[in-house]
Amino acid sequence: MPASSEQKKIISWALYDWANSAFATTVMAGFFPIFFKQYWSVGTSASVSTFQLGAGNSLASIVVAAMAPILGAIADRGSTRKKFLFYFAMMGIVMTGSLYFVARGNWQVALALYILATIGFSGGNIFYDSLLVNVAGKEKMDSVSALGFALGYLGGGLLFALNVLMTLTPQTFGLVDAGEAVRISFVCVAVWWGVFSIPVFFFVDEPKTDAATTQKNAVIAGFQQLASTFRKIRNLRVVFLFLLGYWLYIDGVDTIVRMAVDYGMSLGFAPKSLITALLLTQFVGFPASIAFGRIGQRLGAKKGIYIGVSVYLGVTVWGFFMRRELEFYLLAIVIGLVQGGVQSLSRSFYTRIIPKNQAAEFFGFYNLLGKFAAVIGPFLMGWVGIIMGNTRYSILSISLLFLCGGALLYFVNEEEGQRLAQQMEKM
């Protein structure tokens, strides 16, 4: 394949990360939780609105987790990965843009749209991840996976920075107030997501199956294959151990992402400082993700993951002793250095130990665990904080997830996993 054609495929694939990361930063991590409390849930107590938002997030996660293995199996048998990616991306884009029209106080509609948008975002990632095996060869898997995460950090961070500026100085952009700026930001995310998703559909190929395989047959075969995949993963010791270890340490990663701002507020830090730190993490994550791709190539993906998990372990200890806002900024930089690396190298490592012709099916399980991430961690933080009577112990408790996840990863034999995956491809 000519180098230019290969590069076009790689960049087109990675641009989808640039596209949909705008939803993760501006909507999920940034504006929706705040706007939900202050605008759509006006007149509702803080504790009730928190419960409603938490229930919505949990419902979306459960739906995606339940669908992930089935959708992955269907896509593999029907060779329809890009078609499913299109369906879910469009769901996320349309629902995100529709948030602009939700009236003040109408939290039910806002939450319903947010749940559907989250399902679109998460469901699409199943098929986006599975296309990696068609874009990169074995020798480039780590660097290409890292490029996707790097562009995601940069793209999501750039749009988020613009959206934050819009809310701080709405008159500069011809807007009435910060509330209108936030609503316009949802439209910006939808447009950004849609425009930068186009290349993956035009320039990334996927394996073709027998033309006689109809969509209906693909659905039937997909359910049959799902049952088979349960048996495969149960018998594939390498894949099973990796998925279990991944579930634990990625739960720790996601917990810190979701709870860091809350923890900082509990220490009395200013909200503006916490938002600035979130932006800082995004922009540090861009070059760091690319660097981790190089680390994966030189040292191996497994060692790269260990480096990231070890840094996170240090973060939980440092967070326990943290006293000043300056330290929160420093922690944000440290997290930005390894967050994308752990995610990208985990994805590329997993790609190595699964059969390529069943990638979407196996990534269904991978994403299933990802959707259940940040379930153990937040509960552990809350429980430990109550038992100990000190919030600082709650962040320290997350170290258990990194220790246990790293211990399980130690027993994952990459060479054995590759050998078994190749055998399964031939069956």
From TrEMBL:
GO annotations of cellular component type: endomembrane system
Keywords on record: Membrane, Transmembrane, Transmembrane helix, Transport
Domain Major facilitator superfamily (MFS) profile, first and last residues per copy: 10-417
Transmembrane segments: 12-36, 56-75, 84-103, 109-132, 144-164, 184-204, 238-261, 273-292, 304-322, 328-350, 362-387, 393-412
SUPFAM superfamilies (UniProt xref): MFS general substrate transporter (SSF103473)
GO molecular function, one term: transmembrane transporter activity
Compartment list: Endomembrane system
Membrane-topology annotation of the record: Multi-pass membrane protein
PANTHER family according to UniProt: AUTOPHAGY-RELATED PROTEIN 22 (PTHR23519:SF1)
Protein name, entry field: MFS transporter
Species per Swiss-Prot/TrEMBL record: Desulforhabdus amnigena
